[in-house]
Design brief:
The chain is mostly helical. It is built from 13 helices and no strands.
């Protein structure tokens, strides 16, 4: 995320951080607001670290979650942890002390890290959208295209390519104007960019990947709807065929064989899982856009407009709305994905219960129970198969 004019808040927190005033009645609302804001910002930092750490540990412990798609999910969680540990604390210090206290070198490091990790996060989401595109729109090509080797190549590109718009141009001074370099103060960390850098960095960090993701997910949901309609039609035809074969079998005294096979049942269950994963990851993408779109609109407009003025509180809100996205993804996983929700429960139980000593073998046992439950779907009982298809 590109830092936009992060400097001291001249009047917002002066009294709350210890400055004196004549009227105590005028001070206490500012003190309350300062403490409330501090608590909220700390909560976002802690939630981002613990939530994404829970994602990583759960995927490592749960064999069922160790699929190629979750390689990108784990890498995204690691990037969000770094945002919470490397980027957020510096912004928090600016809000707490009302000025920059770490010097110009750390300022450049902070700005570079912010740009780098935000770009990395959205490129992870772009990779996830491509993975889901092949899994649903082109399922026959998915095992060929999305191999572990390809996943690692995509992850390497995701982590290395943002360097070109973060650390390199910022430390070389290409991102700003000569006037800003000459008038830079030690107790400020303004990120005043020139117009070419504002357009290029925002395009690579947000606009181009966001456009790719939107068109990719439109194709995904269009294909998912087509597949679900085909499954419903196939389920209706299967019911009619089964009823007809049973009537004929009863008349002739012969056994009737169900047309559906265990292979078809497995394909249906696999398709349901793919659709649920696409829905969850689509919600994550939508949350990312909602959190970061206001910031990038604000960033581009203020960078291109030389005479525009805005309150400092707007900058703070834009920053922390984007930061909040790092804490939001684990909540989305837990709410919309049953596999992640069960893994989270198991991990938290093992972490907080001193008598709970579940290991990977316990998780394997749970998987075996789930496989037994899914195996029951293969028994040719019309009512059970009908309910499964109807749930689609």
């Amino acid at each position: 995320m590109d830092q936009v004019n992060v400097s001291r808040n001249e009047s917002d927190n002066a009294t709350a951080s210890g400055g004196g005033g004549d009227g105590v009645g005028d001070e206490w609302p500012q003190v309350v607001m300062f403490k409330l804001r501090t608590a909220v910002l700390l909560l976002i930092v802690i939630a981002a670290v613990l939530g994404n750490l829970l994602v990583i540990v759960s995927v490592m412990r749960q064999r069922k979650l160790r699929v190629i798609t979750n390689y990108f999910v784990v890498s995204l969680a690691f990037a969000d942890i770094l945002v919470a540990m490397v980027v957020m604390p510096f912004n928090f210090s600016v809000q707490f002390y009302n000025e920059w206290i770490f010097g110009p070198v750390i300022c450049d490091l902070w700005n570079s890290s912010d740009v780098y990790f935000t770009s990395t996060s959205i490129l992870h989401l772009c990779c996830i959208s491509v993975d889901r595109y092949y899994a649903i729109v082109k399922p026959l090509k998915y095992p060929i295209k999305m191999t572990k080797k390809m996943a690692f190549v995509m992850l390497a590109a995701t982590w290395l390519s943002p360097i070109t718009i973060s650390y390199a141009p910022i430390f070389m001074g290409w991102y700003t104007t000569k006037e800003h370099i000459l008038t830079r103060e030690l107790n400020e960390c303004d990120f005043k960019v020139n117009k070419p850098y504002a357009v290029i960095s925002s395009s690579i960090s947000f606009w181009i990947p966001c456009t790719i993701m939107i068109f990719t997910y439109l194709a995904i949901f269009k294909e998912a709807n087509r597949q679900e309609k085909a499954l419903h039609a196939r389920a209706g035809n299967a019911m009619l065929m089964h009823r007809h074969s049973r009537e004929v079998g009863d008349k002739n005294g012969a056994l009737h064989i169900n047309a559906n096979t265990p292979t078809k049942d497995r394909n249906i269950l696999k398709m349901k899982r793919e659709h649920k994963a696409a829905r969850t990851l689509g919600i994550i993408m939508g949350a990312f856009i909602l959190c970061w779109l206001p910031f990038f609109l604000f960033y581009v407009s203020t960078s291109l407009c030389d005479t525009c003025e805005y309150p400092e509180v707007v900058t703070v809100i834009m920053f922390w709305t984007g930061y909040f996205n790092s804490a939001l993804n684990p909540i989305i996983y837990a709410y919309f994905n049953r596999d992640f929700r069960n893994a989270f429960k198991n991990t938290l139980a093992c972490a907080f219960c001193s008598f709970c000593k579940r290991s990977a073998s316990d998780l394997d046992a749970m998987e075996r129970l789930e496989r037994r439950g899914s195996a029951q779907l293969r028994v040719p009982i019309p009512s059970r198969r009908t309910s499964d298809l109807a749930s689609l």
